[in-house]
């Protein structure tokens, strides 16, 4: 049996794949590579010394998804695949609803058909919206304020309804806070397309000279330096959280939501200072007006994950910054865009990437 990882070539997915393989699991990865690169999966094999099945599949393609389940005995699913840029979701909301919701429903249909009822879902702290309840607990009222966050909240509701209809499902809903850092090998990390949407890759690209300066949106918040404060979690700690959640859904029935965060926050300028210390580089910045919808302070109460999953974050801000800088230095241009589809008349499209064959 194998663990199916949707979106396994992405930033978080690749680190989860390393964790699963090192823990002795067999894995199968589905990814459409719309916001990831096959090279990440080759490096997962390089880091772990293990091979695994990889398919270039879009979850919106219902027939293809079901074909995978018919070919491979799947034991459980870790579902990460989906569009994830908050700003883009505001500009093209239908794209996000179509992709994230349809893909998830297709996946759940295939799981139900083939009696795979163990699921770990990649949700987000964006489901809480602009709450004033700090620290944020899992029983904090939900109220996503952008299309991306609403897709996550809707998917959580879909899985709750699914569980209510059939209590033999075992489902963990993992609400991420702000993942940063990279594997300490420096071989896999965050490789955003275009200008980064998130703070840490933006800071690291300024430090290495790809971007001229950092925009800091607001310096008049009620924090010690006036800049917004967030809960940053090392991506490896986040990956370990998925393994703990997987153990939970494999051993007990039910559905539950869990915050994956550190339980404390750092301001934008604290992150800049820590990164300058880790890299030895100056990170110039300019102060801009606040962005609409940004909260002043946001961090998790991770007590439930500690008590029910046996998980807690252990890597601090210095390690997060050091590992990010190692990734950035070793991969100044991220994963190089390697390949294009190779087509032959009368045969299926095949993609040859980073030393392995991937079926369309």
Automatic annotation (TrEMBL):
MF GO annotations: UDP-glucose 4-epimerase activity
Known catalytic reactions: UDP-alpha-D-glucose = UDP-alpha-D-galactose
Domain of life: Bacteria
Cofactor: NAD(+)
Residue span(s) of domain NAD(P)-binding: 4-324
GO biological process, one term: galactose metabolic process
Pathway assignment: Carbohydrate metabolism; galactose metabolism
GO CC aspect terms: cytosol
Entry's EC annotation: 5.1.3.2
Keywords: Carbohydrate metabolism, Isomerase, NAD
Oligomer status and interactors: Homodimer.
Family membership: Belongs to the NAD(P)-dependent epimerase/dehydratase family.
Protein name (record): UDP-glucose 4-epimerase
Organism from which the protein derives: Virgibacillus necropolis
Gene from which this protein is expressed: galE
